[in-house]
Write a structure and sequence with these properties.
By secondary structure, the chain is an alpha+beta fold. The protein has one domain: ECO RV Endonuclease, Chain A, CATH 3.40.600. The chain has helices at residues 3-14, 29-51, 90-98, 109-118, 166-171, 182-202, 205-208, 212-215; strands at 57-58, 68-70, 73-80, 84-86, 132-137, 143-147, 155-157, 161-165. The strands form two sheets. A five-stranded mixed β-sheet has the order 1-2-3-5-6. It has a three-stranded antiparallel β-sheet with strand order 4-8-7. The protein is globular, with a radius of gyration of 28 Å.
Length: 239
């Protein structure tokens, strides 16, 4: 099964899944989301195996850089009501740009950028080695499945670095770059991340450059007045 056949199979399987996204007894939205994501991936696994038992489905440990890998395509599942969502993942972007999965998962931005610069970059576009988003609209069940390089608009954010507005992406669901323009789209992605980093750095300069020694309050000598002698008496019961 090639890339296009795999993508078509995933879309067809997703169209058969019908979950209720509010039937949990948990008040924590993050836990509810994790529970429902597992339910969705379990259902997707079953439906794909019905269509083709030979399809390869990998489910990694929790908090990995992808949620599921189908025929080696790394996919991040997003259950959404159409809001703007965090979408930044350092390992996923290295993999998208180079086709190589780094063994180092936690890294600062300089180390991350050095990994991108030092690794051989793709000379032609390879869709199967790009990070994909599988987005499910919880309101109406619509699904969107596309590569990070086929996202219409990257949103910058100094706190979350890279965000995507899924309402906008559903409206532009047919958008996809021409394969020969993939390097330009990679540049657009990196520039969006760089802009967020610059915004983040600028938002910290006042505190980062503050001379805290000068800003600390001067020590003040506190004079404690002497205690007055006590004139209290203890009443005794009459004999």
């Amino acid at each position: 099964m090639n890339y296009n056949e795999t993508i078509d199979a995933i879309r067809q399987a997703c169209n058969t899944i019908n979950l209720c996204y509010t039937d949990t007894n948990c008040d924590d939205g993050r836990i509810t989301s994790a529970v429902k994501e597992k339910e969705y991936l379990d259902a997707l696994d079953i439906e794909l195996k019905k269509k083709d038992p030979s399809i390869i489905i990998e489910r990694p440990k929790e908090r990995w850089w992808y949620d599921v890998r189908i025929n080696n395509i790394p996919i991040n599942l997003k259950l959404t009501t159409g809001c703007t969502d965090n979408a930044f993942n350092k390992v996923a972007i290295i993999y998208t740009l180079t086709g190589t999965e780094t063994s180092k998962k936690n890294m600062n931005y300089d180390v991350w950028y050095s990994a991108i610069k030092s690794a051989p970059r793709k000379q032609v576009r390879d869709h199967a080695t790009e990070y994909h988003y599988l987005v499910v609209n919880k309101n109406d069940g619509q699904i969107l499945l596309k590569s990070i390089l086929d996202i219409h608009t990257y949103k910058t954010n100094p706190c979350n670095i890279l965000q995507i507005n899924w309402t906008s992406e559903f409206k532009n669901r047919e958008f996809a770059i021409l394969d020969q323009n993939f390097r330009e789209k990679e540049g657009e992605l990196l520039k969006a991340i760089q802009k967020s980093i610059i915004q983040s750095i600028r938002s910290m300069t006042l505190f980062a450059n503050a001379n805290l020694d000068d800003e600390c309050e001067e020590e003040v000598d506190v004079i404690v007045p002497p205690m007055e002698p006590s004139h209290s008496t203890i009443a005794s019961d009459p004999l």
